[in-house]
Amino acid sequence: MQYLISILIGYILGSIPTAFLIMKKKGIDITAAGSGNVGAMNTYEVSKSKLTGFIVFAVDFLKGLLSVLILKWIYPNEFIFPSIAILFAVLSHCFNPWINFKGGRGLATAAGGTIILFPYLLLSWVMIWIISYLYKKDILLSNILATPLSLFIILGKPELAFKYVFPQPKSIEAMILFSIAGLVIIFIKHIEPLKEIIQTYKSKGLTK
């Protein structure tokens, strides 16, 4: 029953289509505008409004944050239940059941949950993202690189990462499994942008 409660809370919160609802009020179908991504970045690019983009980011962040906070309140000192909740929140955000399983890329929602559940993972991701962005000035490429590389940081020193999981899981393996599952969902949503980036680099190489 605890597992079902965790899944339902995370999935329902994550499935709130923030960008879709906000842009619908402006008469825009975000799933068919810009990149079609139902997230803060595409909202900003389509609306040309930093405030609108920030509001989408903030609400999506809160979806992840609340998923973890509610489960930590219901089941104190348990890692498994809030971890399940945030994974399903990210899953339903990325593949939203209310808008034909379209969605965002899951970064804001994942950040909202991991900032209190596993800040070490979030910090690792952000550090890699910043380094990549300073070098390439490409947001999507930075997202793509930070996602698998942050997992390598966790795998490189799992004992260190384990100290910064709140509450601590029963084993390092549980922490690693959680990290892999979350990052895989996010990476899947970045496959299409990755293909576009590769194609762009190929085109540049051919034109030189």
Structure description:
- With 208 residues, this protein is mainly α.
- The protein has one domain.
- It has eleven helices and no strands.
- The longest helix is centred in the first third of the chain and has 25 residues, at 50-74.
- The chain starts with a helix and ends with a helix.
Quickly describe the structure.
With 208 residues, the chain is mainly α. It has one domain (2-207).
Question: Key terms for this structure?
Answer:
208 residues; mainly alpha; 75% helix
Described by the principal axes of the CA atoms, the overall outline is globular
Mean pLDDT value: 95
Q: What string gives the helices and strands in order?
A: HHHHHHHHHHH
Number of strands: 0
Strand content: under 5%
- Calculate Rg over CA atoms: 17 Å
Helix content: over 70%
Uncertain runs are: none
Q: What is the overall number of helices? A: 11
**Sheet of most strands:** none
What's the number of structural domains? 1
For the termini, the CA-CA separation is 60 Å
Structural class: mainly alpha
